[in-house]
Amino acid sequence: MFSSSASNGATAEAVGSGVNNDSPTISLDNVSFGYTKERSILSGISLKVPRGKLVAVMGGSGCGKTTILRLICGQHAASTGTVNVNGQSIASMSRDELFAHRRKLGMLFQFGALFTDMTVFDNIAFPIREHTDLPEVIIRDLVLMKLNAVGLRGTALLKPSELSGGMARRVALARTIALDPELVLYDEPFAGLDPISLSVVGQLIRKLNDALGMTSVLVTHDIAESLKIVDYIYFVSEGKVVAEGDVASIKTSNDPFVKQFVNGEPDGPVRFHYPAPPLTEQFAEARP
User: Fold this and answer.
1) How are beta strands 215-219 and 54-58 bridged, if at all?
2) N or C terminus: which one in the chain shows less Cβ crowding within 10 Å?
3) How many CA atoms lie within 13 A of 7 on its CB side?
4) 19-34 burial: b if 16+ Cβ within 10 Å, else e
5) Containing H/E element for 87?
6) Confidence (pLDDT) at 96
7) What pLDDT is recorded for position 14?
8) For 202-247, how does the pLDDT look when each residue is reduced to its tens digit (9 = 90+)?
9) SS3 helix, strand, coil % of the chain, rounded to 5?
10) Which pLDDT does position 194 carry in this prediction?
11) Cβ–Cβ contacts within 10 Å for residue 231, how many?
C-alpha cells in the first residue's frame, strides 16, 4: 500500500505486510512545531509507528526529521497537535513520568557520541549505572552480553579513539540497548560509514529490533540500506508527510517526490536552488 501527498492526513492504517496499527507505540497527530514563531519546522504532520516495527523517516536536510525524534523523547513540546507514546501524551506527562518514559527509550545519536575519555566497557555501563542499582558483577555481565551482541566483546578495554568508525557505531548501538529499551530512536545511524560497516550496522539494527521486540524510528538519508531493513517509510518535506508506504510500494512508486528521492534525481519536487530572483535581474541590480 502506497499513499502520497493526496492522503497526507491519513496515516498507516492500511500499511499491510503484517503491520498492526491497533495500538501504535508512537503516534503524531496533526503536529506543528517551530523553534521561533517565524521559523516553522513541522506543519500538521501525522504518522504512526506500530508496536514492534522498524519505521524510517526520510527527507532532505532541514525538513524536520530530527525534530520529530526530539518531540518523541520530550526534548521539545509540540506547538499544536499531540505526540503520544504508548497511549500517553508527552505534553501531559509530569516530570517523573517524563523521566520514566526516557528510561524506556534508547537513542543512537548521529556519529555515536561516545564518551572519549571512557573505555568501551564504561561507555556501555554508563546508562546502567545511572539508572539502576545493580551490583558491578551484574553490570559486567550485561555489558559483555551487549558487546557480544554487536560482535565487539574483545574491545571492552579499548578507548573510542582506538576503534574504526564502524566499530564505534556498533559500540554506540550496544550502549543504546544497554537497558533493553522498549523504544529506540536512530538519528542518521549510517552517516560517515563505509559500505561494509553500513551494511553491518543496518543488519544489526534489524536483528536487534526483532530479537528484543523493540519499536524503532530510523531517521536517515540512506535509502538503499533502509529499504533492506525497515517495515514502513514516511517521506517528509517542508515539515509535512508528503508520501508514505511499505518497502514494496516505495520501490514501485511513480510519485514524483519518491522517485526523485529514491533515485537521487536533481530535478523534481525538491528544488536544488533556494528561491531567488532571476539571475539577470539580480546582476542588473548589482551594476552601478
Assistant:
1) parallel
2) C
3) 15
4) bebeebbbbbbebbbb
5) none
6) 86
7) 37
8) 888 898 899 888 899 999 888 888 888 999 999 888 788 888 888 8
9) 40, 20, 40
10) 82
11) 21
Cα dihedral 189→191→193→194 (10° resolution)? 130
Task: Please tell me the predicted confidence (pLDDT) of residue 118.
Answer: 92
Q: How far apart are CA 28 and CA 85, in angstroms?
A: 9
Identity of the residue numbered 42: L
pLDDT of residue 264: 66
| Residues 171/159, Cβ–Cβ less than 8 Å | no
The DSSP output letter for 14 is G
pLDDT of residue 267: 62
CATH class of 2-104+182-200+210-286: alpha beta
pLDDT at 270: 62
Amino acid at 111: F
Query: How far, in Å, CA of 182 to CA of 164, rounded?
Result: 29
Predicted TM-score of the model (pTM): 0.77
DSSP state of 275: P
Residues linked to residue 88 through DSSP beta bridges, in sequence order: 85
Residues pairing with 27 in the sheet: 48, 84
Q: What is the per-residue pLDDT for 223?
A: 83
Coil, strand or helix at 136: helix
Which residues of the chain fall short of a pLDDT of 70? 1-22, 111-112, 263-275, 284-288
As a whole number of angstroms, the distance between CA 93 and CA 98 comes to 6
Query: Residue written as cell 530572483?
Result: 277
Structural domain boundaries in the chain: 2-104+182-200+210-286, 117-180
